[in-house]
């Protein structure tokens, strides 16, 4: 029975549980697994129905994965914030348990409760936000509570604080195809969220001298490295990128930078990825093996030279593992880091035990162990992109090996040319092979990804990241020039990325295809990457045919005379999309959520991309309140807007923003009417533009839109008041 099938079955069982609407009793899937194993053993002993034996064994592995994930979920969901304490002041003594995320408006951090006046009614792990102006540091010797309006303290992992806070059970937006925040918090074991009202240091010393624990020490180390980098690069444009490459903290990267990275397809590089960890591990292994082979000079102190005690390859494997573990701890142990560490561990163990482990088997073991440790990881984008990319690299490498026919030792120039061809082939294979996954996850893919990554991968992997790590390890006097050179190298790369990603066609946006079409596309990619040289052309032709349903997918639109209204879940505020056969109108854009996020980026734009919206024929901003107009600029930057109707003061900034994006802007006035595809649109309020005067509230000036046909009507009212 192939071990790979058992490992894949376990991962599939974990994923099946995550897609269920409700949990089951854990003993049921475990009993199913035991029954399947017993049946397989009985059939094997009786030598009957041999075809059923592997099927039953894989089913047992899937049932075990299902039951394991179910038991873990029940344990985690049993911890909940008591409803009686939701929204009430809670006085708690807590410990900062991880590296805080710094923002312009708030610091967000994980607190681990030690004691509170709510007792066991509050979960032990709570994600909190402390709002204010960043940078205020309290050194309050008398224990006075800081003024929330004055700022927030310089929080560090391991600090013990006594806080007055308000908490609520985890809740997030719920939109089809959107990010599932509640699931992400469950995966992170966050069972309550909230914000700080007041707080004071419970002690003026950091936790850790006696009872800090290993992970607190790791988080404190990460915080010290981040402070070291930011102090050396106080005003550098891409200092947050250097921080992300060293400690995995991406909270400081600007939203416009993320948009550039997405357009050019290099987002995977602006984080600690498997490529970075493998590079560091290989570098340390090569250096350690070189020193190990040259250690015969130590014979005067050692009776037996080191190379005679242990072969250099084994010593290099140990050095690689130590370097990978240290770097993964510094990175925060994300899914890509876990996957890479597990794969390197498999290779290192095989090297230490003189075994040969196929790459595909190590990949399956890594996936199964990740699912065992963190069953929720199987639903993350990083899980599938990481393992998918590695699997494609294996296939591409096998294709290159099959195409190689040189029997003589090639020249240096030939080896360089072969290396460049191989790197280009692998990059194209990864870009093409991940196409179905990127369309499933993001509804878009970068057309210029291969060109952008062709330069970005060597620059980030072999220049920016090594210099950043060296600078992070050096003392302040020597770290500044090294870190400045690292930041400058990424700045030079950004110039290239901006040029490559400038054309409007640099990103291909595709509508959401049905599941069956996406599954066919995955199979088609596998067929097109199958090894075999020119003999595999027939398989690749069939693979190309299997891609067609995904590429030709189209979204169903309303019939002429009909319309569809989509009311987005965006939290506080409103946003609604009206669709007819050939037109789309967006009524309000929702609020901003923080420094780098708003309702348009998280909800509206992904929906428009997934439903093949090339432009908005009209955008109506009912009034200027931020919960209705806060994401307007993001909408204009993401999709072309032909016309904007708004009830805004004459000097409002949105008018200038509309002019900058070449949007034809006008005021809402009662009596405006138009018809699209047999559907009538009419503005009912306000009666004049600009509506009212200074004494009229913004809510009372709201645009009111009526949409209707012969059978139905919808009334979109903004925040209009009763009068």
Please describe the topology of this protein.
Layout: H1 3-18, H2 27-46, H3 52-77, E1 89-96, E2 101-102, E3 106-116, E4 125-131, E5 160-168, H4 181-187, E6 193-201, H5 214-232, H6 239-247, H7 255-264, H8 274-293, H9 306-309, H10 312-331, H11 335-352, H12 359-373, H13 381-403, H14 412-433, H15 435-442, E7 444-446, H16 449-473, H17 476-500, E8 507-509, H18 515-528, H19 537-551, E9 564-567, E10 576-579, E11 584-587, H20 599-610, E12 618-621, H21 626-629, H22 632-638, E13 643-646, H23 653-660, E14 664-667, E15 673-676, E16 679-685, E17 704-708, E18 713-716
Parallel strand pairs: 4-6, 11-12, 12-13, 13-14
Antiparallel strand pairs: 1-3, 1-5, 2-3, 3-4, 5-6, 7-8, 9-10, 10-11, 15-16, 16-17, 17-18
Could you describe the 3D structure shown?
It is a single chain. The chain is α+β, with helices and mostly antiparallel strands. The strands form four sheets. A six-stranded mixed beta sheet has the order 9-10-11-12-13-14, with helices on one face. The chain is built from 23 helices and 18 strands. β10 (576-579) and β11 (584-587) form a beta hairpin. The model is unreliable at 133-150 and 204-211 (pLDDT under 50).
């Amino acid at each position: 029975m192939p071990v790979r099938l058992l490992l894949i079955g376990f991962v599939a069982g974990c994923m099946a549980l995550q897609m269920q609407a409700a949990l089951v009793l854990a003993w049921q899937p475990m009993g199913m697994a035991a029954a399947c194993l017993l049946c397989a053993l009985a059939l094997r002993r009786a030598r009957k129905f041999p075809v059923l034996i592997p099927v039953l064994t894989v089913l047992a592995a899937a049932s075990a994965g299902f039951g394991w994930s179910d038991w873990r979920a029940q344990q985690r969901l049993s911890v909940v914030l008591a409803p009686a304490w939701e929204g009430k002041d809670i006085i708690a003594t807590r410990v900062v348990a991880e590296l805080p995320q710094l923002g312009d408006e708030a610091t967000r951090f994980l607190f681990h409760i030690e004691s509170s006046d709510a007792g066991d009614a509050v979960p032990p792990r709570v994600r909190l936000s402390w709002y204010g102006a960043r940078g205020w540091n309290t050194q309050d010797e008398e224990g006075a509570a800081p003024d929330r309006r004055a700022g927030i303290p310089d929080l560090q992992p391991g600090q013990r604080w006594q806080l007055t806070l308000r908490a609520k059970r985890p809740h997030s937006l719920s939109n089809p195809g959107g990010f599932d925040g509640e699931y992400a918090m469950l995966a992170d074991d966050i069972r309550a969220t909230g914000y700080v009202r007041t707080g004071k240091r419970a002690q003026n010393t950091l936790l850790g001298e006696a009872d800090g624990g290993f992970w607190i020490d790791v988080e404190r180390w990460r915080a010290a490295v981040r402070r070291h980098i930011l102090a050396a690069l106080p005003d550098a444009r891409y200092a947050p990128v250097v921080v992300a490459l060293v400690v995995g903290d991406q909270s400081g990267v600007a939203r416009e930078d993320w948009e550039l990275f997405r357009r050019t397809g290099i987002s995977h590089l602006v984080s600690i990825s498997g490529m970075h960890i493998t590079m560091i591990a290989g570098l340390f292994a090569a250096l350690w093996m070189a020193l190990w082979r040259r250690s015969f000079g130590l014979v005067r102190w050692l009776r037996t030279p080191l190379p005679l005690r242990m072969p250099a390859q084994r010593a290099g494997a140990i050095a690689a593992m130590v370097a990978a573990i240290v770097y993964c701890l510094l990175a925060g142990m994300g899914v890509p880091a876990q996957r890479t560490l597990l794969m390197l561990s498999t290779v290192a163990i095989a090297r230490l035990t003189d075994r040969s482990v196929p790459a595909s088997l190590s990949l399956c073991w890594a996936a199964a162990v990740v699912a065992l440790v963190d069953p929720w990881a199987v639903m993350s984008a990083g899980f599938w992109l990481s393992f998918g990319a590695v699997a494609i690299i294996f296939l591409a490498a096998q294709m290159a090996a099959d195409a190689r026919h040189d029997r003589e030792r090639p020249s240096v120039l030939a080896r360089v040319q072969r290396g460049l061809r191989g790197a280009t082939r692998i990059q194209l294979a990864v870009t093409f092979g991940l196409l179905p996954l990127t369309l499933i996850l993001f509804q878009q893919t970068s057309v210029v990804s291969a060109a952008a990554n062709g330069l970005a991968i060597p620059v980030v992997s072999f220049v920016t990241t090594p210099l950043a790590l060296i600078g992070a390890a050096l003392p302040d006097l020597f770290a500044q020039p090294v870190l400045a050179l690292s930041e400058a190298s990424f700045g030079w790369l950004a110039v290239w990325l901006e040029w490559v990603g400038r054309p409007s066609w640099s990103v291909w946006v595709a509508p959401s295809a049905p599941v069956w079409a996406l599954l066919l596309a995955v199979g088609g990619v596998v067929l097109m990457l199958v090894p075999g040289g020119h003999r595999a052309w027939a398989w690749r032709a069939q693979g190309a045919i299997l891609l067609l349903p995904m590429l030709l997918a189209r979204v169903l639109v309303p019939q002429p005379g009909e319309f569809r209204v989509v009311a987005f879940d965006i939290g506080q505020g409103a946003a609604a999309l009206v669709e007819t056969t050939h037109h789309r109108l967006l009524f309000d854009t929702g609020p901003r959520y923080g420094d780098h996020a708003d309702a348009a980026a998280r909800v509206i734009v992904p929906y428009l991309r997934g439903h093949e919206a090339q432009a908005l024929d009209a955008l109506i901003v009912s009034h200027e309140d931020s919960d209705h107009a806060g994401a307007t600029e993001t909408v204009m930057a993401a999709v072309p807007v032909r016309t904007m109707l708004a009830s805004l003061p004459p000097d409002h900034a949105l008018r200038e923003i509309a002019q900058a994006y070449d949007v034809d802007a006008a005021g809402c006035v009662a009596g405006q009417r138009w018809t699209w595809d047999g559907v009538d649109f009419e503005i009912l309020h306000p009666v004049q533009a600009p509506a009212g005067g200074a004494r009229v509230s913004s809510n009372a000036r709201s645009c009111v839109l009526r949409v209707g046909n012969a059978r139905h009507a919808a009334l979109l009212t903004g925040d209009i008041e009763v009068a």
